[in-house]
From TrEMBL:
Pfam families: Glutaredoxin. This is Membrane protein. Residues 72-128 form the Glutaredoxin domain. Gene3D superfamilies: Glutaredoxin (3.40.30.10). PANTHER family: GLUTAREDOXIN, GLUTAREDOXIN-LIKE PROTEIN NRDH. The lineage of its organism: Bacteria, Bacillati, Actinomycetota, Actinomycetes, Micromonosporales.
């Protein structure tokens, strides 16, 4: 019997975090304190907790039309999304974040601009899609707004 969609999505969102925590526990049990700390930090960074609250794609599009803020389509565990998030640092609150694993419409929006692939991060800036943009370029574009 397949899992309900919400349980499946929740499991997928937390899988990398759980794997990293298991590695951290093994490291702790075997006395590798430094590895334990590193794995816990990686687990926190890879978790959905490292990102601003995700909103549905339709809401992000409406808000973006009203306030002009860019939309970032992302997914938990994506190293490129994490790189973007950490590069933007506190400026990340100046964007609308949409988790494509939470919202099928968001995944469809990404596929529409990424040649049918769910390539993230995909950023919509001033109505123009940018698939996996350079984080430094995006930070400068946000500051220039």
């Amino acid at each position: 019997m397949p899992l309900p969609r919400t349980v499946e999505t929740m499991a997928r969102r937390w899988l990398l975090t759980l794997i990293l925590l298991v590695v951290a526990i093994v490291a702790a049990v075997t006395g590798r304190t430094v590895l334990f700390v590193i794995m816990v930090l990686f687990a926190l960074a890879a978790s959905p907790l490292a990102f601003p609250t995700s909103i549905p794609a339709a809401e992000a599009q409406a808000r973006s039309a009203a306030d002009g803020k860019p939309i970032v389509y992302w997914r938990p565990g994506c190293p490129f999304c994490l790189r973007l998030r950490t590069t933007l640092a506190f400026q990340s609150r100046r964007l609308h974040w949409v988790d494509i694993w939470k919202d099928p419409a968001a995944a469809a929006a990404v596929r529409a601009v990424a040649d049918g692939n769910e390539t993230v991060p995909t950023v919509i800036l001033r109505g123009e899609p940018h698939v996996n943009p350079n984080p430094t370029w995006l930070r400068a574009a946000i500051r220039a707004r």
